[in-house]
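Protocol step 4 of 6: structure prediction from sequence.
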Amino acid sequence: MKNFSTAVVSLVFATACAALVSPAAVAAAKCEFKPDAPDSHKVVRGDTLWDISGKFLQHPWCWPQVWGLNRDQIKNPHWIYPGQIVYFDRTTGRLSLGKPVGAGGTGGTVRLSPQVRVEGMGQDAVPAIPSGAIEPFLSQPLIVTAEQLQGTPRIVASQEGRVSLAKNDRAYVSGDLKGGTSFQAFRPGKPLLDPDTKQVIGYEAAYLGTLKLTRAAKEANEAHSFMVVSSKEEMGVGDRLLPVPPTPMLNYVPHAPEQQVAARIVSVYGGVTHAGQNQIVSINRGAKDGVDLGTVLELYRHGGLIRDRTDTKEMIKLPDEKYGALFVFRIFDNISYALIMHVADTVQVGDVARSPE
């Protein structure tokens, strides 16, 4: 199967004098330039960080290292814009950012350290990825724990006893809103099992739509009044509510995790067992395991056990075979969502995802 490449991150830079990322991250992913890397690349509309990184680097997630970004700058980066030029300094093994001199200049080029352009707040900057790729997954897929299921508010009645609710319909909700006013409606799905422990680590709930509080309950046994703001699927009595999450930041920088991560593919979003480029998967590692936004993990086919029929008849573990990479863009405590970046084979539930070597 052909190798694929997909951009998932915003093209971002910080000052050239910044400290390098941690030694652990450097050791986790050896950063090497391609033998045929160009001397420069002019940024144009449609460019993405993953694609530009791939022009210079063997591993695109080495970008923070060759720019000298530290952990704070990875989390709070700056934007880059079309028209700027990425230069490769072969002597220092670093990249720098500049722009060509205009017609009124003195000729040649001016090579600058990574520069910040504030106006427009990134509106004209190189985007993270075509908007349809991950935006629907930034807030809509829900991972819910057993504890959350026990305490979430629930729809107890509908306007005029309707079976299903649509936009602008009224819903009546019981439960503690904890001061919230905007909620997502969801329906608990099948449990997600950790491929290693076989334990339930969460429930991938079906996203149904959004509701807004119109009147809070005045008495302990009174229902809250809500209005349906949007409806993706039919919702009705018994469906649950969770607060709408904050609007996510999209200017992630790809990087190897700070600590070694060994994960497994838990599910492919949409309920299928195989996935390819641009599809969403969940892994059995999250914030508690040191995974953060922008973490890149390499994909391996999990090597099974076979019996040695040639000699000892003992069971032998086959090696895991590397075939791609994924990028983490949404994190829960024990589970994360990731986009499949490039693959040479189909991704299967149970496959290994671990720190770059």
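Step 5 (inspection) to follow. Confidence is low (pLDDT under 50) at residues 1-29, 101-121.
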